[in-house]
Amino acid sequence: MPKLSLVVPVYKVQGYLPECLDSVLGQDYTDFEIIAVDDCSPDGSGAILDEYAERDTRIRVIHLTENVGLGRARNAGLEKAEGDYVLFLDSDDTLSDGALTAIADRIEATGNPEILIYDYARTYWDGRIRPNLRADLLKSDGGPETFSLADRPKLLDLLQIVWNKAYRRDFVARTGLTFPPGYYEDAPWTFCSLISAERIALLDRVCVHYRQRREGGNILKTVSRKHFDVFDQYRRVFDYLDAHEELAEWRGPLFRKMVDHYLTILERPGRLPQDARAEFFHRASADYRARLPKGFTRPAGGRGHKYGMLERDAYATMMSALTAVKFRQTARSRARTAINRSKRSAMGVFYQSQLRLPLDENLALFSAYWSRSVSCNPAAIDAELARLAPHVRRVWAIRADAVDQVPEGVDYVRVGSREYWAALARAKYLVNNVNFADAVVKREGQIHVQTHHGTPLKTMGLDQQKYPASTDMDFVKLLERCDRWDFSISSNRFSTVIWERVYPCSYTTLETGYPRNDVLVGAGAEDVRRARAALGLADGTKAFLYMPTHREYQPGFTPPLDLARLARELGPDVTVLVRGHYFYGSSPHVAELRRTGRIVDVSGHPRVEELYLAADALITDYSSAMFDYAVLDRPIISFAPDWDVYSAVRGTYFNLLQESPGAVATTQAELLRLLVSGEYDSPETTERRDAFRRRFCEFDDGHAAERVVRRVFLGEQTPLPVVPFDERPHAPTPAQALELVERA
Fold first, then answer.
1. Is 121 within 8 Å of 209 (Cβ atoms)?
2. Which residues are bridge partners to 627 per DSSP?
3. DSSP string spanning 485-517?
4. Are strands 574-578 and 599-601 parallel, antiparallel or unpaired?
5. Which residues pair with 202 in a beta bridge?
6. Is this entry keyworded Nucleotidyltransferase (predicted)?
7. Half-sphere exposure of residue 272, counting CA atoms within 13 Å on the CB side?
8. Where would I find the beta strands (DSSP E) of 124-179?
């Protein structure tokens, strides 16, 4: 049997769950089990648990068939626990390094107490860490190592939580402790366990990092009548006292905790609906009078006055006092609003005037890559919108220096023009693969769609805070921009988990696949031949598409490949398509190769998807191109000569050298050997590619754009089912396309 059992209830935490589990599995102490309870979570949390359980036998997963709530999910895990001690960990929180060793050592040093209480710290999205404000209560007072609550009654003033304690399992069984349903389920368990324990010990060490989720995610930020559950929870506390006369001394202290809790719910905005406040007050007042202990003394000062108003059921008096406080808060809020209005005035009077006009319900504004082109996921959504909802007018935001590249027939507005600001102000739909400018105001009723522009290998969003050398981003402003999103598009669960964690805002994730990849699934032989012909590729010519990514640590671009040598050694029947930065235009070797067609600079090509269709294989390093090209099921070669530097400076989500989509080379000589010998396309690389595709091309079945249009623009709630992976088509290879065309 394990020494420790960690019960982890799980519900809608796919963005944080891996970090939680990793923090436990990475502990230097190993004598534990994890009982993870999937509370019928509607996201990918259950699948994440199963994946972890397959890799580590210390994890047992319980999948509940209906959502029962936090308390009952904990009970389900508790029933399966086999450890000497039970710990509870919320699935968006994490253990600190060495926490389990410290807990186990302290348990042994104090002779196996019934409860061990340890410290925690609050962690924030911006990297701030705030210590527990009552951490002083966990420090030694020079008394015995173990004690009862009567010896240190101030421990009741710790936050009413269960996850900062280890409970001896036989103590839990003996006292019959279980979690009740509803909000505030920690209160009965915490209070009843503390007053019942004869031997409590303390560990003055932060063992849990309590995540303060920016987008909410807990009951304290939810306006609901469910806050009335607090009355049932304290009824359970006092029922427990009634059943245990030997604990009568705790009526006074627990009465004080009850009243303070009721007042907190009444005073804090954002909990009770406005029309429920009087009812809540009257019920709290009734509890006060019914449970008032004989000889109870109210607290001094203003808190004591509130106790008195509650005892007299003086709702009107209490509301007058709260209104005075609210008035002062409102005055401060109005001052902030005036400042914000002053800032917005800098956007221009015209934009302000347009913001006052009604939204155009049939106008969609698109942008891609900071308004540099008509491309990527927004372009694919645009095309599908024209097919399914032709009544919606589609307009693109384009920078002035890029208007000459706009395809014929595309309606556009120049960024910064009056037409641009009018479209931003009045369009019902705004679709972008990056963020719109800080100056853009998100209007009520507007729908912002964030399509993203690649599956992330390198760290993104808030994760970049860990790699300051890679960015000078203002993360506060970043999240303010992300707050405008209504929908976030994802092509795989891997991306979904990352996006939801690094952009913690209140959007809805649409796991549709990437619209730009639809063509890679649905293209036919003629499409492939046409793409190759447009690039001047002759039949029988093998084309390698080379797409290196940007490196933040390089002031300019230095190609890691000697392109002239590469083309020379590959022979006359091979063409290298180069997409990226400008490559040595003054080199006579490269110039000669360009004249002969052996190297084709496709950096300015408007549609990368056509380059994918034309290429026999992809050579890349850390570019997200690998995830898209994998849809085609053609060879991918990872050329990573500076992996150690890149991964250290920018940070990555997995080790490309170990989890590559195919062959890997770290030197040009190695790359040449792979290409010349044909080893880049072998049974082994095919097997790697298959695993890569199943992981990262999960939803790319050719219907991504249609899913987005139906959900966002047509309001359909039931998505098209994803075509099973093994039943999906994909575009033919160039050789297959040639054979098909000739046969036709």
1. yes
2. none
3. -SEEEESSHHHHHHHHHHS-SS-EEEE---GGG
4. parallel
5. 117
6. no
7. 19
8. 129-131, 165-168
Give per-residue burial for 412-447: e unless 16+ CB within 10 Å, then b: bbbbeeeebbbbbbbbbbbbbbbbbeeebebbeebb
Q: CA separation (Å) from 319 to 274, 326, 327, 333?
A: 12, 10, 12, 20
pLDDT at residue number 556: 59
What is the pLDDT at residue 473? 87
Could you identify the residue written with the tokens 């509607």?
42
Alpha carbons 735 and 490: distance in angstroms, whole number: 32
CA distance readout (Å), 579 to 427, 546, 607: 34, 6, 11
Contact 95, 22 (CB under 8 A): no
The backbone region for 218, taken as left when phi is positive above 0, alpha when psi lies in -120 to 50, beta otherwise, is beta
Enumerate residue ranges in the chain where pLDDT < 70: 216-220, 321-322, 324-347, 553-559, 581-594
> Alpha-carbon distance 48 to 170, whole Å?
31
Query: Quick one: pLDDT at residue 595?
Result: 72
Q: How far apart are CA 425 and CA 438, in angstroms?
A: 14
User: Which residues have a Cβ under 8 Å from the Cβ of 525 and sit 6 or more positions away?
Assistant: 732, 736, 737, 738, 740, 741, 744
Count of H-run helices and E-run strands, the chain:
27, 22
For residue 675, the one-letter residue type is: L
| Identity of the amino acid at 297 | T
Amino acid found at 550 = H
**What is the rounded distance in angstroms from the CA atom of residue 115 to the CA atom of residue 171?**
9
β-strand partners of 131: 121
**What pLDDT, on a 0 to 100 scale, did the predictor assign at position 343?**
46
CA gap 404, 744 in Å, rounded: 38
Q: 208 pairs with which residues across the strands?
A: 95, 120
In one-letter notation, the amino acid at residue 472 is: D
Helix (H/G/I), strand (E/B), else coil: 281: helix
Contact yes or no for 544/574 (Cβ under 8 A): yes
Q: In sequence order, what DSSP letters do the residues of 10-28 get, joined into one string? A: ESS-TTTHHHHHHHHHT-S
The DSSP code for 84 is S
Phi–psi pair at 4, nearest 5 degrees: -120, 135
Tokens of 567: 């083309």
Q: Which residues contact 717 (CB under 8 A, 6 or more apart)?
A: 711
Residues 285, 310 contacting (CB under 8 angstroms): yes
Strands 32-38 and 115-123: unpaired
Three-state SS annotation for 715-732: CCCCCCCCCCHHHCCCCC
Residues 439, 448: Cα–Cα separation, whole Å = 15
Distance (Å, whole) CA 287 – CA 239: 13
Beta carbons of 121 and 93 less than 8 angstroms apart: no
